[in-house]
UniProtKB/TrEMBL annotation:
Domain of life: Bacteria
Keywords from the UniProt entry: Hydrolase
Domain AB hydrolase-1: 47-241
Name of the protein this chain belongs to: Alpha/beta hydrolase
Pfam families: Abhydrolase_1
InterPro entries, alphabetized: AB_hydrolase_1, AB_hydrolase_fold, AB_hydrolase_sf
PANTHER family on file: MONOACYLGLYCEROL LIPASE
GO molecular function: hydrolase activity
Length: 292
């Protein structure tokens, strides 16, 4: 009698709703094949929430926030083209590196896989992309949430690209120290591991760091905000350099409303105070879902 065990396929392991999974979405951009890296969390059949990150970060900045939203939503955080593990925009892409280009690539990739509208949240550069996405694809964006809206003053427009100038590699490693000091200055109280992650991501994206800031400056955001018809929630932390833009942004939006984050919240609020962000996003997005 043959005592050998017969092979049987392993049981499929279902992840917990709070488990963060990773993968790639495909997009055709100007006839070229591109892949955008994502993190996802929650049940795929739940209402779709799309998270868009700041510069020079990646979807990694949402790892603490995503599980807090996963009970009610399918949460999808995308690496912007050229950042994290996403391919850059093709060299032949119309307009070069632009907010419109980022929004178009993200829309193509997400809509090709998930054929339904999304609730969209963006932080800083991600907020600029979110506005562009709602302006260009109004049927795709059910509601919008903006943290640190990019309605910039003339002084901010002049300073922003200078704050992200490319730091050339140095044989002695001085470039590491310069980048470390730049990113620590954003929040000197941030965990060292967070600053280290951001420094690595800043070097990974290369020239896209400065180029994305220039793209934010060049975006014609005022008429876009005025044309957006979906409900929009706008907020910023007390230490966010873009906090002063909250009220003017709300005034431009036909269906805008303001909310508040803690006074000690800054540029890394999604990493460091995810519960405060979730407490704003969850009821707002649920309100939109329940309204149908």
């Amino acid at each position: 009698m043959d005592q050998r065990r017969r092979w049987e396929p392993a049981a499929v392991i279902e992840p917990f709703p709070s488990t963060i999974r990773r993968g790639y979405l495909d997009a055709e951009l100007c006839g070229e094949f591109a892949q955008l890296h994502f993190r996802s969390c929650g049940r795929e059949e739940a209402p779709l929430v799309l998270l868009l990150h700041q510069t020079p970060s990646s979807s990694a900045m949402y790892q603490n926030l995503m599980p807090l939203l996963a009970r009610d939503f399918f949460v999808l955080a995308i690496d912007t083209p050229g950042f994290g593990n996403s391919d850059p925009l093709p060299a032949t892409f119309p307009g070069g590196i632009s907010i419109a280009g980022f929004a178009d690539a993200i829309y193509r990739a997400v809509s090709s896989k998930f054929d339904r509208p999304a609730l969209v949240f963006g932080h800083h550069t991600g907020a600029a992309i979110a506005v562009q996405l709602a302006f260009d694809q109004p049927a795709f964006v059910r509601a919008l949430a903006l943290s640190g809206p990019t309605l910039l003053t003339d002084e901010q427009k002049a300073a922003l690209p200078l704050a992200a100038q490319t730091i050339a590699a140095d044989a002695e490693g001085a470039h590491w120290q310069r980048m470390w000091q730049r990113l620590r200055a954003k929040d000197p109280q941030a965990e060292l591991s967070l600053s280290q992650r951001e420094a690595l991501l800043a070097f990974t994206c290369g020239d896209y760091y400065e180029a994305s800031y220039r793209a934010v400056v060049e975006q014609d955001v005022v008429p876009q905000l005025a044309a957006i018809q979906c409900p929009t929630l706008v907020f910023a932390g007390g230490r966010d350099l873009l906090r002063a833009a909250v009220e003017p942004t709300v005034q431009l939006l036909p269906k805008g409303r303001a909310a508040e984050l803690p006074e000690d919240a800054g540029t890394y609020v999604c990493d460091r105070q995810p519960a405060a962000v979730a407490e704003l996003l969850q009821p707002f997005f649920l309100e939109i879902v329940r309204a149908g």
